[in-house]
Write a structure and sequence with these properties.
about 50% helix, flat
């Protein structure tokens, strides 16, 4: 069972921690180097129906009504994927392919500190 002193101690620790977090956040928020700054050119907003929106020439949203969605035809897969174009290799890539050797690459050098690390990590195995 917990005593009243234990509950008071936990409550006090909670309030001290909460106060520390609040003080730290106040200090960090007051530092101008960490705060967000406005961009040098200022910000720009585009209102709906304005000349700036018309200048963007955004496409009109389609399928706004239920009838338009029901009458819509599925897309033709062959026309939407396009035709792939083969990539031409550069001279350096062609030379690298011609001079490449078959087989696996050579193994690396053994770790010189492997035994010392094994002795440190698994001391019971080295008795």
């Amino acid at each position: 069972m917990s005593s009243k002193a234990d509950l008071i101690g936990h409550g006090l620790a909670f309030w001290v921690t909460a106060a520390g977090v609040v003080m730290l956040s106040a200090i960090v928020a007051s530092m101008p180097s960490l705060a967000q700054t406005a961009p040098a050119g200022g910000t720009t907003s585009i209102q709906q129906g304005s000349d700036a929106e018309k200048a963007l020439k955004l496409p009109e949203p389609s399928y706004q009504t239920r009838e338009e969605r029901l009458n819509a035809k599925p897309l033709d897969w062959n026309t939407t994927i396009g035709t792939p174009k083969p990539r031409t290799l550069t001279a350096a890539e062609r030379k690298a392919l011609r001079t490449a050797k078959r087989g696996l690459s050579a193994g690396g050098a053994p770790n010189p500190s492997a035994e010392a690390e094994a002795r440190r990590l698994h001391p019971d195995d080295w008795k």
